[in-house]
Amino acid sequence: MSNETDLVVSSVEKLAAKPVDRRKVVAGIAAAPIATSGIGGIAAPAMAATIAPSDERINTFKGRYALGSGKIIDGYFAQPRGKTNLNVVLVMPKGDTLDAETENEVRRHALAGYLAIAPDLRATSGALSLAGRNAMIADMMTALPGLKKMAHGNGHLRVVGAEG
């Protein structure tokens, strides 16, 4: 991994390991897309064309996924068909819920060889969603250690912001 990626991952891991200050979380999320924009394979898929959900090169799933920690992620998941041991990319949506553009970005990352996830922040956070977007993002950050341990993942995780 590059120094930029190490910086983002270590910052996110620090946030997930202790009580979360929402200002620090928002600052970390804002830095993640900037730091990862120069990493090959992350920025390139975001510039590609629309990928159909039925594309035979990928598997997609929209629903709930339980992490080993007991946290349940509601969202959109995609990965290259037949592949395992993948880097995980968490695509943070522009809004509180999923939209077609964010789901398409998840599919583009899957075509680039990643296990890609876009959480539906409102559904994942439940009652916490009443506290606002910052609280939902902070809640999502607590799931990062579990995301690193996903069944088809390899322990590497990047957080990116949805394009658009």
Can you walk through the features of this model?
InterPro entries: AB_hydrolase_fold, TAT_signal. This is Dienelactone hydrolase family protein. The chain has 164 residues and is an alpha/beta fold. The protein has one domain. Helix content is 39%, strand content 24%. The protein has helices at residues 3-17, 22-36, 43-46, 100-111, 121-125, 133-141, 144-147, and strands at 58-66, 72-80, 86-92, 115-119, 153-161. Strand 1 (58-66) and strand 2 form a beta hairpin. The two termini are 26 Å apart. Residues 1-5 and 30-46 have low confidence and may be disordered.
Ordered list of secondary-structure elements with their pairings:
Layout: H1 3-17, H2 22-36, H3 43-46, E1 58-66, E2 72-80, E3 86-92, H4 100-111, E4 115-119, H5 121-125, H6 133-141, H7 144-147, E5 153-161
Parallel strand pairs: 3-4, 3-5
Antiparallel strand pairs: 1-2, 2-4
